[in-house]
Amino acid sequence: MNMRIKETTMSPGAERTGKADEATAATTTIRLTAAQALVRYLAAQRVTDEDGASTSPLFGGVFAIFGHGNVAGLGEALYQHREALPTYRAHNEQAMAHSAIAYAKAHMRRRMMAVTTSIGPGATNLVTAAALAHVNRLPVLLLPGDVFVSRAPDPVLQQVEDFHDGGVSANDTLKPVSRYFDRIVHPAQLLNALPRAIRVLTDAALAGPVTLALPQDVQAMAYDYPAAFFEPRVVRFNAPTPGEDELDAALDVLRAASKPLIVAGGGVLYSHRGPDALRAFAERHGIPVAETQAGKGALPWSHPLNAGAVGVTGASAANALAHEADCVMAVGTRLQDFTTGSNTLFANAKVIGINANAFDALKHQATSVVGDARTALDALGGRLADWQADPAWTQRARTLCDAWRETVIARTNSQPATGALPYDAHVIGAVQRTSATSPEGDIAVCAAGTLPAELHKLWRTGCPGGYHVEYGYSCMGYEIAGGLGAKLARPDREVIVFVGDGSYLMMNSEIATSVMLGVKLIVVVLDNRGYGCINRLQQACGGAPFNNLLSDCLQGPLGAPAIDFAAHARALGAYGEHVDSVAALEGALVRARAADRTSVVVIDTDPARTTDDGGWWWEVAVPEVSPREAVRAARAAYETKLAERGGFSPRNVNNDTGNDA
């Protein structure tokens, strides 16, 4: 490495006071470029392993697509540190950021990755992924190149010029979707920016995307950095401890309840030993547990008090208990509309919001407890002593939970009727039947469409991390890239990517990356020939089938394409196989599990059928005026639901403003 180490002469006083070593360390500097300093600092960050006796790198590596603005500066620095901080080449900037985010999710936010891009389209391709990380509270470090600080050669290739602000670049698009944003305009600024970035990335309340925009001339500038800045350091993960007054207020609500329910969110999984604390709390106090998309797996699916998925995509057991409960303990969840049934599901309950982020803890007019899930549950449990929910409530919950598990087994073990296409439940069942010999269990990865609903209800996971579904942002295209990140994080587990044909077409390039890296995935493509989920929603709102299924789209003289996904996968270097039955799917999955590289298995599925059991109302606004009778009927049903919920109504707003149509 091209660097210069120098030592400043110590004062005689330092030697006389016995602080010679400290003074030397404090005054030794290393001359590095800003890019070299950044990479060296990231490589020095460590995290304590589960055993508490060893450490691992905080950053598992850097995904990079080099281009104008990052290849010369950051690219050279990454090359110098490629052993300590591996660099992974990807094929799409958004996809590689998804992979980095999935890596952090699979590590329960205890380890993470960085991503670097060029200054123009590469940087703006990060915006969707950054929004996903922001919504899901997942850490990722974004390192896009930027234009020259000197502005001497402006406008440079790929530069976005703002006619009103000379300081704006394409990277400013990342500000709204970053938890912390900084533009490094001098190498010395890294001394402050990097520790701040690490703090945000490792803080339970702040965790999310961090963007450090790196002007290309600054990347190449040299500076004399303190040597101590690059000493290996073990990172502390920060989470607030709940206050006594908040705990007392929550206890007052809980002790007054007889029918409490715990809703477990992702914060339970991200809390160190959070699932253990949840299980102990639920068992001691006889409280059933329902799980959000992010929280699924916090309690084993077979646990007697696990009521299953909650909300719009929820189980009948969980939703019945949620609607009857007089107290809902929302632990580590941001209470999005799919969890609350658009704020109708917890209609009879007082809510206790337990969350490391005060913004989330206050939702649903909750009695808030701002703190880490494990710490808060332990503190509440210690004060509750032997208090328990009404025994009749606990018994009712156990009965409902048992019945739901029987439903799950029945739906996933069923077979399509003769001549009928399978639907998602049949595919999920086939995958789980072929995993019976895997003691650790598979990791199911998914993101958008119907599949997250079916998986939320029907996927059986016995341990945290076995369910990896991105449904905070419901981002099509996350699936395959997310599977790559999950497999990098958990190479000992079989990663099963469930993806529809629509999402596959939107982003599939990381199949090639998985083959190149030797990171084996099993990708199951459910081909329903279009956007089946949104097609059903369209019709549920009274709309005609339009522009969703391929058969309902505007077409040229050649008609809709007959896409051979298996052949496409083979063209990317993976194994590809199309099957025509559930039995054939099971055989293909057995072969995929034994394969030495990524396998893509394709099966045609029914775009109309879903699992009827469970579910809850979800508010989707229906047009108030339409020439279609079906839309008018859907609007009437929508207004009935609004009236049942009470509160906000679009018609009330129109009346208030004098614009009633």
Automatic annotation (TrEMBL):
Tell me where the transmembrane regions lie: none
Q: What are the annotated GO cellular component locations?
A: acetolactate synthase complex
Question: Thiamine pyrophosphate enzyme central domain: which residues?
Answer: 247-380
* Sequence segments annotated as region (Disordered): 1-23
Its keywords, alphabetically, are: Hydrolase, Thiamine pyrophosphate
Q: What region holds the Thiamine pyrophosphate enzyme N-terminal TPP-binding domain?
A: 62-158
GO MF annotation terms:
acetolactate synthase activity; flavin adenine dinucleotide binding; hydrolase activity, acting on acid carbon-carbon bonds, in ketonic substances; magnesium ion binding; thiamine pyrophosphate binding
Q: Does the keyword Membrane apply?
A: no
Provide one Gene Ontology biological process annotation: L-valine biosynthetic process
Q: Quote the Pfam families the UniProt record gives.
A: TPP_enzyme_C, TPP_enzyme_M, TPP_enzyme_N
Q: Which InterPro entries match?
A: DHS-like_NAD/FAD-binding_dom, Myo_inos_IolD, THDP-binding, Thiamin_PyroP_enz_cen_dom, Thiamin_PyroP_enz_TPP-bd_dom, TPP-bd_CS, TPP_enz, TPP_enzyme_TPP-bd
Segments forming domain Thiamine pyrophosphate enzyme TPP-binding: 448-603
Similarity annotation: Belongs to the TPP enzyme family.
PANTHER family in the record: 3D-(3,5_4)-TRIHYDROXYCYCLOHEXANE-1,2-DIONE HYDROLASE (PTHR18968:SF9), THIAMINE PYROPHOSPHATE ENZYMES (PTHR18968)
The name this protein carries in UniProt is 3D-(3,5/4)-trihydroxycyclohexane-1,2-dione acylhydrolase (Decyclizing)
Species of provenance = Trinickia soli
State the encoding gene. Answer: iolD
